[in-house]
Each structure stands twice: as C-alpha cells, then as structure tokens.
Amino acid sequence: MIDLKEMMTPVTCTLDETGSIRSAVEMMKEHKWDIIPVTNAEGQLLGIFTKSKLFTLILEKQSLSEPIGHYIKTDIVSTTVNTSYDEIKEMVKNSHVGTGVVLDDDGHVIGLLTKTDMVMALLRYSNTLKEQLETILESSHLGIVMTNGEKEVIYVNDHFLALSAQSKGSVMGEKFETLFPNVDIADTKSIFVPKVAVGMNQTMLRLSSYETITGSKGIIALFHEITELEQMAKELQTVKNLKQTLDTAIEHAYDGILMIDENKRVTMVSPPLLDLFHLEKSRIIHKPIDDVMPQLHLCSVFHSGEVELSDFKEVNGIKYIVNKIPIKQDGEIIGALGKVMFRQLNQVSELYKKLEKAESKANFYRSQLKNTETARFTWDQIISQDPYIEKLKKSAKKAAKGRSTVLIRGESGTGKELFAHAIHGSSIRKEGKFVSINCAAIPEHLLESEFFGYEDGAFTGAHRKGKIGKFDLANGGTLFLDEIGDMSLALQAKLLRVLQEREFYRVGGTKRVQADVRIIAATNRSLEEMVKEGTFREDLYYRLNVISLHISPLRERKQDIPLFIDVFIEQFNRMLGSSITGIEEEANSLLLNYHWPGNVRELKNVLERAATFAENGKIKIADLPEYMTEYTERIGKIPMVNMAESAERSAIEKALHCANGNKTKAAQMLGISRSGLYEKLKKYEL
To answer: Which residues pair with 374 in a beta bridge?
Structure first.
C-alpha cells in the first residue's frame, strides 16, 4: 500500500502569527503552495493562511506589511504521518478543501497533501502494479483471458494465444460469448469445464468475475492444456492409490511399523506399535520422533544412510528389536521406516533362554540356593496406593530395626511373606540368613525335627550323621514361621521355650544348642479365638504378639488392582514369552468388581492364565475364568443392604485392629458413640 510520505509535498518552512502578508506571498510564489502553515514558537500548528484569503485582502487593499495573525484559518484538515491510506482517501473524498496539512507524532508540520499529490501517487502505484501483474500473467503456465464490463476482451496472454492457435488481433475486442459460445458466463465458479471450443486444445480451469472501475462486472477466464491436466489427474490418482495401499498394509501389519519424513516427524504408525507402547495415534502423528519415541533412535539412519538393526530392547516385559531403514530419493534421504518386531521373537527368545540356562547352569543353582536363604523382596516390591498399606509399611520398617518378634496377620494370599522378607532385608540381621518354614505343609511327626534337627539314630530312617534344623540354619538371622496357627500344642510348648531361653535340644540329643534367631510369624487364622478354644497356647500368643501387623484383603483396597495388573503382565511377558499389551475395558471392569477371596495370589494366578490364553494383544473377558463371570452375575442379585452390612462389618474390624482392641478409640475412628459400637459388635457377633 502507498505510504503517506510518498504522496505529500514536504514542508521546509512555515510562518508565525507575526509574519507579514508580503512574506506569505513570497513563500507561496517560491514554493507554489496554495496555503501557508502558521505555527507557534514551539512549531505547533495554529492554522493556515490560504490563497483565497490573500485575494480577499488584496481586493480590500490591505497593506502587505500587515501581520497575517488576524487572517489565518483554524478550521483546517490535518492528518498524521501514521494515518492509514483508507482514512486519507475518505478525508480527501469528503473534504471541500484542496490541501491538507501533515503532522508528525509531535504535532510539527512536515508536509502538505493535495488531491493532485494523491492522484499522481496512485497513478504511479497503479502503473507499477500493472507492470507486475502483466509480468506474472505472461510468465504463467495458464492461458488467461480478461474482459471489460461489456464482456469485450481487453487482455490475453501469450500462453492463451499459443494454446488456441489464434493471433492477438483476432481476439482483442471480441465478445466473450462469441469466442466461447458454450460457456455460461453467469456461472463464475466453474472448475474443469470441458473443452470450450472446437479445435482448441485446452480446457477452462476457472471462470471468475471482477468489478471494473465503472462498477460493472468483467470476466477472467483461466485455461490449461487438456493433455497436461489429464496426465496430472492420472498421476494424482496413482499417488492416492499408492497411499491407500500403504495405509492398508500398515493398518494390518503383523509387527509395529512407523514412518517419519525428512523433518523427522511421524507420518504413519501401525496399531500394533501403538498397542505395544500404550500410545494414542493423535498424540504421536505429525510429532517429532525424538519427542514421542526416543527409544527407537530412528534418526540415526539420517547420519549413517544405512539399514540398521538394534539390539534386543524391552517394554512391559516384551522383548523387541527395531529394523531402521532410510528412505532415499535421488540419493537424498527423505525419511525413514522403523519396523518394530516383537511377536515372532518368542521362539528366538525361548532358544536364547535355553542357551543361557545351559551356559550358566551351575551359577543358576548356586543363586537359587542362596535365594532360599536370603530375603528376596524389598519394600519397593510391595506396591500399593492404599493409605492403610502405606502406613503399615512405615510401621513395619520401624519394627524391622529392632529385635522383637513380629506377628503378621492377614488372609491367605495378601502378601504376608513379602512383608517378612522386606523386614529381614531392612533389619540389622540382613547379612544373616532368612529361613522360611511352612508349619502347615510339613507332617506333624516331622515338624519337630525340621525345627530343631536331630542326632544320629534319633529315630528310624534318620541320617547316620544327624541333621541340623531350621533354628540352626537361621542362627544370626531370621526364621519365618508361616501358618503358625497350624502348629500342634506340643510343638508350641517347645517353641515357647526357645523364644524365652534362646536355646533348644535336637531330637534325640542331650546338648543344649544356643539360638540367636529373630522370629517373624504369620497366620491367616484368629489366634484369639484359638486361645479361647484351647488350640493355641495363651503364653505363646502373647510372646508372639509383640508387634502385630494386619494386612488388609484385596477387596478392601481395590485401587491397587490396576497396579498389580501392570506388574504381573510385565512379569508374565518375560516368563511366558507372551506379548500382552494391556487389558480390555470389559475385562478390567470384571477384575475390579470381583471379591477376590484368594487376594493377590488369586489375582496373579488369574492373570497368568489370561496371559497364557491371550498370548498377544490385550486380555479379553473370554480369557478370564468362568467362575469370575458367574460371580459378578450372581452378585448383581444380592440385596444392597447385605453389601452395606458387609462393608460396615469390615470397617469395624479394621478400626478395632488399628486401635489395638481399644473400643473407645475405635468408636472415635468410626465417628460413632461407644454404645453404638457395642450394639454393632453384638449385631455382627464380633
């Protein structure tokens, strides 16, 4: 657009109010101005002295020495150098004054703007635009025809003349309808109109209208050679077909496929790859590959220019390798293709595992033996989002630092052994052995010899040199007594003596054996009830119940289920060689709503079964056991009142445990009165 400085006449001098009429006449004559700007001492505009006012003063025979201050005009048209062209055009169009004053940002006079100045500037600008437009039109590969408002041809370019085999003189001034009788000039939005005239090797691409200077409608028609258009259309269709073929191949590819362009942005990605890395297409497509999937290192082929094969990588327990292929055109790399292979690696992985086992068999057995005598789990492996479990872990960590006996309670499968391992691993005895014995898994007549060992000839079938027991093995370390509620009364008495005296006799022996052992016991039974029934010694109960930890069942902390699902899927992918990428929503909902009587152990077994059945992709509801589906269908028929009572009973039990049996404190935790708590205890027979 034209700048105001290009249109105005610069002003280098002005007059003040004391200037004479003679000075004004001389300035008008010298600069050929029709007005003289009059300013104050600071150069600010006060008004103008016009030529018409001068003529009036001459007719009135005023003296030329008279100051002009009384004859200046203050009703003036002024503008600033920053005024837009459209605003200036409106001012000039609507003003009866022939000349305006141009001011700078500080209000100082810098020029005069006349209608003549504006017209000349526009004329120069329009000539420049005309030359530029003609250059563009002549260099265009399109044939161009333009008419005036009467639809008479006023312009054609050389390319149109070459296409139509006509001379400029034969078409200039002709009516558009005469040259193109088959074209409806009222349809000014036509695209790809068929061949418009016999003998013309061209087709009309576009028919448009424009407004002429007189306000009428002219026509602009664009033409292109038919053969060239047809070739372009064929090439475009071929490209579309190739893209559709490529999209289909990638969509149904068995392995993960990803493509990037020369800007290293993702252009295509297959569903298996999205499933493997738990990604959404909308969050990866058209994004820089190093931002969304840096682990593939796909950009390395831009430097090497060669096909590359990565080492084994792993995600969610699934092993994969990346085949990186540069895409070249005319010797230049214009992109890269990444092929992520993971599903067919199962067999390779199995062979690799067998080879690994064969090469390290001795080390494997030594490590297995060591693992049976050391803590295998740490606090980090006890995962939970439940506040109670987090609090329980903190309490257990504190208990681990001491020497006191720890009693771990909880239903079967809740992870009591994990806590026992973690307590030993963070205790001062962690360098010692961690020996575990399941009191329910060993026959009653062998349990004592397992505990304390035996001397030579202690009983029929005994080894000649005798055998040391679990207390001997755990000396200086920790002995974990699992399912201690299943121990006989006779053995309970001997265990109590060991805990009190820290010594014992081997079966058939007469020599005292010192025992520096810390006891961690676990049970899923109510020892208090067993004490009342006489099946568990009361003195042993109090000796074991020094520090008591109660692990809540899985049904009371279902927010942990998604955590366990992710961890177990990753474990089974490694162990089974499967390629499970996740779990479908319906199956996930079923797992969340199931009551889990077997707790975490049952969840792990269910997921192992599902991973075996699914093999790859996502776990579906059909991969889960039927009894779970039957339970969820049956539970839907249970009255809500029963479910509420069950939840209330569980809350009371947990509060009593946290309050160590203190009913007043438990009532405060539950937000009810002490008498109200007693009523509920009576109701639920607690």
So the answer is: none
